[in-house]
Amino acid sequence: MKKSDLDRRGFLKTAGVVAVSFAVPASLWSCTKEAKTSGGPTKGASAGGPSANMAAITQKVTSLEAKGLLTEAKPGPWAGKQASHLPQVKFHKGEGAVTIFTKHGMSPSHWITAHYLRDQDGKLVGFHEYVGTDKEAKNRFNLPKGTTRITAYSHCNKHGDWQAADTKTV
Ligand SMILES: [Fe+2]
């Protein structure tokens, strides 16, 4: 085998790793790109490619989580609002996908601003923004291969960031 072949293989191996690392951000990026820009401060991430958008999404999620997470057992100051804020997860067996739905009204002054997902390792594997004029807070996410569990999050502009119990996806 020639040295150039080895170099090429090394390059392809590296390129493969890069491609895998982009696979998830690219899917996240497309979700954000679809977000509308009216109805609230939910303008999608700016142009600059998948990595730039992944950084923007990570930053958004960090800011959503800055005030802490609310759960069924620990709803903070919003006891009684669990049912309308905790995301519901429907797993589509055999399709590698989930639909996330939050039973919450949508209006320009009070709405679910985003859903996002983390996998079994805590890695972000889905992100979708909503605007107040959307009909409902519901979105289907295709999961990356290797996802065995997901945790869904739902953020309300008035009542914080809610974390559902994790769901098995295999
Ligand atoms: Fe709310």
Care to describe what's here?
This protein is α+β, with helices and mostly antiparallel strands and 170 residues long. The protein has one domain: Immunoglobulin-like (Sandwich), CATH 2.60.40.730. The chain is built from three helices and nine strands. The chain has helices at residues 3-34, 49-64, 82-85; strands spanning 69-70, 88-92, 97-102, 112-119, 124-129, 137-142, 149-156, 160-163, 167-168. Strands 1, 4, 5, 7, 8 and 9 form a six-stranded mixed sheet that branches. Strands 2-3-6 form a three-stranded antiparallel sheet. Strand 7 (149-156) and strand 8 (160-163) form a beta hairpin. Helix 1 (3-34) crosses helix 2 (49-64). The termini are far apart. Fe (ii) ion binds at residues 85, 104, 110, 156, 158-159.
Nutshell version of this structure?
31% of the residues lie in helices and 28% in strands. The protein is of the alpha+beta class and 170 residues long. The model is unreliable at 1-27 and 29-47 (pLDDT under 50).
Tell me the number of structural domains: 1
Q: Can you write the helix and strand succession as a string?
A: HHEHEEEEEEEE
Distance between the termini: 41 Å
Task: Look at the structure and give the CATH class.
Answer: Mainly Beta
The tally of strands reads: 9
Classify the secondary structure makeup into a structural class.
Answer: alpha+beta
Radius of gyration: 18 Å
CATH architecture: Sandwich
* Average pLDDT, all residues: 79
Strand content: 25-35%
- Please outline the major beta sheet: 6 strands, mixed
Provide the low-confidence segments as ranges. Answer: 1-27, 29-47
CATH topology: Immunoglobulin-like
